[in-house]
Design a protein that fits this description.
seven-stranded antiparallel sheet; elongated; 292 residues; Tscrpt_reg_IclR_C; alpha+beta
């Protein structure tokens, strides 16, 4: 029998090393590791059935790459920031890929600009935009962060939280500037307006109580609306996108000049909600009870 070539042997050896690395990462993702805030070298060696010295050297290499983190006090290891960053980028890349067709269908139906947005702390980040063919249209916001409490997308993105979670979040972010970053990259267009006083008969978010009232309306209707609360002359609607856990991970937004869309916000909201629901199903979301 012909012995394996050096290259083939090296490939198998590298594969075996990768498998051993993955075993340790999987062990750090177990309920035991998560509940204890990490595991020590001895316990990881027991779980992997490997020599303690080998496990220690492997963990040091993984720590250098940011794939695991070592607590300086307990000396326990946990999954590292780089692993979470890679997972987040992978998930968002799939989200954008899956969403593109739905955004285009909404643009075809409404002839208005449509966005896919996610939450970043107190901010809304636009991952993707599909522009309308109108010369005067809602603008693309890719890469620009905006204060979540000021926008329909932001209110939708936090609408699955408890009142206590909302209160803690609003305490931190309820006074954020409208444009968080990067303001310099914002194209010229309709000007962002300061928070106006609520006109008679119109619900605007100006404090935590009005935010909570708006969140409850979003839950009942399945979408949010804004009427010149963020950009002068611009209105918009947003609806939630759910993942396989039934958690809100994104928002589908339609924005347009008020003369074109202002009289049709509820119809646009229902359309956005249908598109968001179809995207959610594509992402494996459980069947949700329709609002209302």
């Amino acid at each position: 029998m012909t012995p394996p070539t050096t290259a083939a042997t090296g490939q198998r050896r590298n594969s075996a090393g990768l498998r051993r690395d993955l075993e340790l990462l999987e062990a750090l993702g177990t309920d035991e590791a998560l509940q204890q805030g990490g595991l020590g070298v001895v316990r990881l060696a027991e779980l992997a059935g490997r020599d303690k010295g080998q496990v220690s050297r492997t963990l040091a290499t993984l720590a250098d790459a940011g794939l695991v983190a070592r607590d300086p006090v307990t000396l326990g290891y946990s999954l590292g920031y780089q692993l979470y960053a890679l997972a987040a980028r992978t998930a968002e890349a799939r989200l954008v890929r899956e969403a593109t067709g739905y955004l285009r269908r909404i643009v075809a139906a409404t002839h208005e600009t449509t966005h896919l947005c996610v939450l970043r702390g107190g901010s809304v980040l636009t991952l993707a935009s599909e522009l309308s063919e109108h010369a005067f249209r809602g603008l693309g916001w890719e890469g620009v962060s905006t204060a979540a409490w000021r926008t329909s997308a932001g209110r939708v993105l936090v609408s699955g939280w408890s009142d206590e979670e909302l209160a803690a979040w609003y305490e931190l972010h309820g006074h954020d500037e409208a444009i968080v970053s990067p303001a310099s990259s914002r194209p010229s267009g309709p000007s962002v307006v300061p928070p106006p006083p609520p006109p008679p008969g119109k619900l605007l978010v100006t404090d935590f109580d009005s935010l909570l009232a708006e969140i409850r309306r979003i839950r009942e209707r399945g979408y949010a609306t804004v009427d010149e609360e963020f950009e002068a002359g611009v209105v918009g609607v947003s609806a939630p996108v759910y993942d396989f856990r039934g958690q809100i991970i994104a928002a589908v937004n339609i924005s347009a000049p008020k003369p074109r869309l202002g009289a049709h916000l509820d119809a646009a909201g229902r359309l956005a909600a249908r598109g968001a629901a179809e995207l959610s199903a594509q992402l494996g979301a459980p069947e949700l009870t329709p609002p209302g």
